[in-house]
Amino acid sequence: MIKLIKSERLRRFIREDDWEDLGISTPHLIIRSIDEGRYEDAKALVRYMLPEGKGLHDLFCDWIWDLLTKTAEKRGEEATYELCRATQETWMLRRTWKALLKMSVEERVYFNAEIMRSHRGGPKQDGGLDIIEEEDRISIKMDPCGSGGRMRRGDPVGGTPSRLGPPYNFGVTEKAYPWSWSRKNVPYYCIHCAINEILPIEWGGYPLWVTGYSDDASMPCYWHFYRKPELIPEKCFTRLGFKKWKLDQ
Predict the structure, then answer these.
(1) Which run of H or of E encompasses 21?
(2) 3-state DSSP helix/strand/coil percent for the chain, to nearest 5?
(3) Strands, DSSP E only, in the chain?
(4) Torsions phi, psi of 55, nearest 5?
């Protein structure tokens, strides 16, 4: 039997089902509830499913930023870039880049919107996004994104403060680097978004999307998908230490 109980310790609902049901995934329980005509149970489980996975998601994001902070403290800031790049240029981004090259710009937006919805962004931390269509590009607006944006601002849903202050005190770049968009005070966590642009430029001449990052944590983040590579502004290359290539050659 399904039992959603309000936990005073966790300050949210948690499943305290009978043992034979406790190991069944929540999506399967939602389907079962619908099949059995228990629609209010299905709605309750849908509402529960979002916070069910949020804690682990947020923990891993926080952990990554802390690991990168410790790396910078012990090995220097350049080591954080080398560490992120070493993973992104092999199995992670390399295979994604190859797949995205075969997609239209619209398909890239569909695919990345799916990723960012699962990244639990938006003011309610439920994956809410805004899609903005303009003549030269399509943009995904995240206010905030579910990782760097949430951690910089603090999380009103989880009731936790900004990771830039105590008890976290996670680090930011002390200097401006190409891998921090030629800015300082960029969270070590967020530099992977700059590397997401750097590597495709090295491999193919242009980034598949451009990150809209603000020094003001209260501002939203964006991923801009330009309809054609030649429409990407020069400044999007120079901030990463590149000159815009002549893409028609």
Answers:
(1) helix 19-22
(2) 50, 15, 35
(3) 4-7, 12-15, 130-133, 137-142, 210-212, 221-226
(4) -60, -45
CA atoms within 13 A on the CB side of 14: 9
Token pair of 206 as six digits: 């242009």
Residue 1 has pLDDT above 80, yes or no: no
The residue type at 36:
E
The pLDDT tens digits of the residues spanning 185-216 come to: 999 999 999 999 999 999 999 999 999 999 99
What is the SS3 assignment for 122? coil
SS3 63: helix
Residues 187 and 223 in one domain: yes
Question: Residue 41 sits in which domain range?
Answer: 4-48
Please state the domain count of the chain.
Answer: 2
Q: Judge if 145 and 228 occupy the same domain.
A: yes
∠ CA 156-157-160, rounded to 5°: 55
- What pLDDT is attached to residue 157? 86
Predicted structure pTM score: 0.92
pLDDT, tens digit, 9 for 90 and up, residues 31-60: 999 999 999 999 999 999 988 989 899 999
> Domain for residue 140, yes or no?
yes
- In 3D space, the residue among 167, 213, 207 whose CA is nearest the CA of residue 189 turns out to be 213
Instruction: Write out the DSSP string of 125-168.
Output: TS---EEEE-SSEEEEEETT-TTHHHHHH-BTTTTB--TTSTTT
Cis ω before 220 (30° cut-off from 0): no
